[in-house]
Amino acid sequence: MKLHKFVELIIQNTAPRSGRRCGLRPVLWPLLASLVFWAGQGTVVAEPDTSKEYQIKAAFLYNFTKFIEWPAEKFPDSAAPIVIGVIGSNPFGTVLADMIKDRKVNGRSIQFREINSVSEVRGLHVLFVPAAETRFGQLAEALREGSVLGVGESEVLLSYGGAILFVQEGDKLRFEINLNSAERAKLKISSQLLKLSRKITRTP
């Protein structure tokens, strides 16, 4: 898929639901800046079985890292990378790994990691939890104690330490944010990202 298509898809997926013609919200442009840059740099070649949905989610995951502040102790030194992981089955194929290759956020490189054990979660900065994953109780402690941004597809995750939930709204992919989960994990979410969320909750 050509990278400029990602820009179009994100715009489509965050457009107002009223159907009125209006300009894109200014706050969205920082989120799209790198996507626009990619569009002029080349393409991401998706595996045949990687759906458009997961290509969009991969773009969101990468961009989320630009709007999250982790506690200083989460990074052992100034050269430590930001690590994005997927637990269990990886629905992204090679798309996410290819997307973040050679990219940097705040001077840090980004790495992708596939994990199968909950014990590996604490070594991540962002964890994507597929809908099929059910180890919520174990994940809750790992996300909180490890200061890991949990992003998932099951609403249950928001009650077990997940901070961001992908939500399909018609033909649009949106996301919700649980501020309590983020705060418990000592994560600071940019006000820009909060403004883009479909809904902000504070699940006990």
- Domain module tally: 1
Sequence of strands across the biggest β-sheet = 3-4-2-5-6-7-8-10
Overall form: globular
Tally of extended strands?
10
For the record, the CATH architecture stands as 3-Layer(aba) Sandwich
Could you tell me the strand content as a percent range? 15-25%
Q: Helix and strand succession?
A: HHHEEHEEEHEEEHEHE
- Counting helices, strands and paired strands, the structural category is alpha/beta
* Count of DSSP H/I helices: 7
Provide an overview of this structure.
It is built from 7 helices and 10 strands. It has 204 residues and is of the alpha/beta class. It has one domain (3-201): 3-Layer(aba) Sandwich (Rossmann fold). The chain has an 8-stranded mixed beta sheet with strand order 3-4-2-5-6-7-8-10. Helix 1 runs antiparallel to helix 2.
Question: Descriptors for this entry?
Answer:
7 helices; Rossmann fold; two-stranded antiparallel sheet; single chain; 204 residues; 31% helix
Provide a quick synopsis of the model:
By secondary structure, the chain is of the alpha/beta class.
Produce the secondary structure layout.
Layout (H helix, E strand, L loop, with lengths): L2 H11 L14 H12 L12 H13 L3 E2 L12 E6 L7 H6 L3 E2 L2 E8 L10 E4 L6 H10 L3 E4 L11 E6 L2 E7 H6 L3 E2 L1 H6 L2 E3 L3
